[in-house]
Design brief:
The protein contains 4 helices and 10 strands. The chain is an alpha+beta fold and about 200 residues long. The chain has one domain: Ribosomal Protein S5, domain 2 (2-Layer Sandwich), CATH 3.30.230.40. The strands form 3 sheets. Strands 1-2-4-3 form a 4-stranded mixed sheet, with helices on one face. A 4-stranded mixed sheet has the order 5-6-10-7, with helices on one face. Strands 8-9 form a two-stranded antiparallel sheet. β1 and β2 form a beta hairpin. α1 runs parallel beside α4. It is globular and about 45 Å long.
């Protein structure tokens, strides 16, 4: 019997309203609407390359700025991944990848360890892509890692175009997640000597 690795998350605050459904064993299909075009684009990339199915609708206080919406979407996505993983029995757990995007390169390593940590070594050449503040990428990833229980290391050794750097990061995270959440038939238990993640 195959266990469905899905989750539905709802979050409502004075700043944001978010509904999210995720399937870790999907086909890369997405319906994403946050009101922030660049965030939608990055989440679409992540979904496509992680082979997750994601439905996400978010509305927030964008008249203030994008911060609350970006952070809360990260919280919900992290919670969704954690809930969908369940006990984590049989997952590969670790993954790393290197993804180029034209002149930029992102090296990604992650561990679905239950011990959240983000190490973020990336410098953007501009402060914005369109109207999007690129400093919010780190905020989003911090929220994602904290709520999913992921240890994520991001290193961008070079790159000049801010959009390309961001895209390489999100595609790299996607490919690492796709590998780390995959079930390894040889691993019959929790992938930890502690017996718990």
């Amino acid at each position: 019997m195959t266990i469905e690795r899905t989750a539905t998350i709802q979050r409502g605050t004075k700043e944001t309203q978010i509904e999210l459904t995720i399937n870790l064993d999907g086909r890369g299909n997405s319906q994403i609407s946050t009101g922030i075009g660049f965030l939608d684009h990055m989440l679409d990339l992540l979904t496509k390359h992680a082979l997750f199915d994601l439905t996400l609708k978010a509305s927030g206080d964008l008249h203030v700025d994008d911060h609350h919406t970006v952070e809360d979407v990260g919280i919900c996505l992290g919670q969704g991944i954690k809930e969908a993983l369940g006990s984590k029995r049989g997952i590969r757990r670790f993954a790393n990848t290197s993804v180029p995007m034209q002149e930029s390169l992102a090296n990604i390593a992650l561990d679905i360890s239950g011990r959240p940590e983000l190490v973020f070594h990336a410098k953007f050449s501009t402060g914005k892509v369109g109207n999007f503040d690129v400093e919010l990428i780190e905020e989003f990833l911090e929220a994602l890692c904290t709520n999913a229980g992921i240890n994520l290391h991001i290193n961008v050794p070079y790159g000049t175009n801010t959009h390309h750097i961001a895209e390489a990061i999100f595609k790299g995270i996607a490919k690492a997640l796709e590998s780390a959440v995959r079930i390894d038939e040889r691993m019959k238990d929790i992938p930890s000597t502690k017996g718990i993640l």
